[in-house]
Design goal:
The structure holds two protein chains of two kinds. By secondary structure, chain A is of the alpha+beta class. Chain A has helices spanning 2-15, 26-32, 202-223; strands spanning 24-25, 37-39, 42-49, 57-58, 65-69, 76-86, 90-112, 115-117, 121-130, 146-153, 157-158, 160-180, 186-198. The chains are: A alpha+beta, B alpha+beta.
Chain lengths: 227, 478
Amino acid sequence: MKVTLLFSSILIAGTAFGSSCVTQSLQDYLNLGSAGCDIGVVSLSGFALAPGQNGATPINPLQVIVTPGGPPFAPTLAFGLSTTATAPTFLESFFRFHATGPGLVGNMLSLNSASASGDGVNTAVEDICPGASFTGNSPLGCPGSSSLVTFADASSSQLTDFASFPATSFFDIFVDLSVDGGLAGSATFGSAAVQLTATPEPAAVLLTLAGFVMFAVSGRRLKKPTN
Amino acid sequence: MFHRFAIAIAAATLLAPPFFAASHRNGPLLLEDQTANLNDFYIFRSYESGRSDRLVMSMSAQGFQNPDNGPSYYKFSDSVLYRFNINNSRGLDGNPDFVIDVQFKTTLRPNNTFLSYLGVINSIDSGGILLYQTYSVTVTNLRTGVTHTFNTDRNGHALSVAPPNLGPKSTPNYEAKLGAPSVFVLSNGMRVFAGPRDDAFYFDSAGVFDFLNFRPPAPVLTGSADTAPGQPYPAAHDGFAGYNISLIAVELPITMATANGKVPVNPKDPNAKIGAWAATYRRFVTVRPSPRDPVNSGHWAQVDRVGNPLTVEALIPLPLKDFWNRSKPADDAQFSSFIGDPFFASGILAGVFGLNVPAPPRNDVLGVFVPDITRIDLTIPPTAANKQNRLGPLAGDNAGWPFGGRRIGDDVVDIGFRALAGVLVPGFNMSPNNALGDGVNSNDIPYLTRFPFHAPPHAGFNHSGIGGTNGRGMPTGL
């Protein structure tokens, strides 16, 4: 029993850091504070709302459903709005969080189930500051930052965007989701997903492999009949 | 983290030359977006004969227009919203209560030439105006939600943009035939104008940008050098002489601009003062589905604003200029650390020239620039054109910047120099603080004494770039 616990702890140490993220509202994620939660090898924390754009109506964070997923080294966080805005309504959910993990090297943003009519448009914008933090509570002041942009209007769309970075252990991330009815149109926003890409560090790989090997060996020993 | 950022910005600013040019070339992103780039904003009680119960606002865009830059010359952008904002409540907090939106539409009249203007154009309805622009004016009271849109004047004529002043052969007698007829009266009594005009701003930009290479006796002006019109060229070199701008001007009854719909007469009336600024917006998303034309979607997002002159030029550090241009006046307290300790005062006036200036925080500066709206006391009667003093309230002419609005001819550079030197702070109204100036005391050509007040545009055929006179004395369409 003690051996099994030891092996389990080694395996967990190689892949995760704290409590697992679960499907709940953005408000629940805001309430996690600095403790945050984990998806695979990546820890997400520090969720906070940011001041939105001029004229935008903030979307209640209770109405934003956050769904974690993805494999350990490519965790995904989907933000579901399932909201429609008709002109001149302009809805926005603007928030930030921190991602911490081994060898963070990429970030992909995708927009799902979005449609628009007239001059309405849906946008999802993600700003990533690798290895440092933005200044203040807006995505400014980070020289190495990247912006990912996805949108869907009545006639065209860009549903995914991607950026890669030199390996770092920290991302400061802003996510800005807007459902914009325009001046004479409408927009329906399903969800947007942020996918992080982590490169396993050699030590983490070895630790994880060690955990699996020891589990396997332990299993064989347990199955071996006693003489 | 913010503290470290502020220190980094301050260090960078110490190495940068000052910028004093109204708002012609400010904000790195606006250098790439000239049609949305606002230069100056003016608001004043009309000093046109018999119209002192009217308020005039104008904004200039797309500065440094070379008058001979054909064949297309310059135009307003169809995808930009140009907005006048008036704040008349809540102690002037920088939030708009009343807005006037101007939007343009370009029509390319069928033709087989490569020209935008063809033949003799002696009427605003001339078919020779091949690149023909019209505009709409939308007046919205944000507190009541009442909106009126005007696409024509009260006689049903389209609100058309004045064509450029090409020269005596193409646009003879420009102002009488094309300039003045482009002033339209709307059915609500407002008057409007849109089109090219002379840039009314004047300033020795070349000298100052050459790392404070003032032309003597500047920067300390005495005697005739300190009285309008100042010294002639080349002693005074107006970097804006001979250039045109794109002007949008509106004239409205004062009663339209106040919260209670009345003309205030008592300075203690809470409706006596209003604040105003201009801003430009573009749609949130632009898609370029080549080979089709771009498609614009979503709400209007602010790309530039101008309240007082010199704010973004002289008070906001370079790394923050684009952010400032996109931000709201109501949020200007976030820039207080820079505005309340202006580098131009502490770093240049005190640091370089050794002047004794007030110590920060500069509440006198904060009171004007936070929020950055041009304030006008509507109880101050307008000063007749021939009685105006370029130094405005600093010389006892209270109907000028910074307390009585901003008129076309206010010498905001010299007023700004002196105000930043502390002349409005007790104990600092002394020489040389109260004698600072760039040496240019007047515009290159006379202003109009009627709406829209800006002088007619310089003609392409013969302008200062050709004559080498720095614009002074060059004929326009007057």
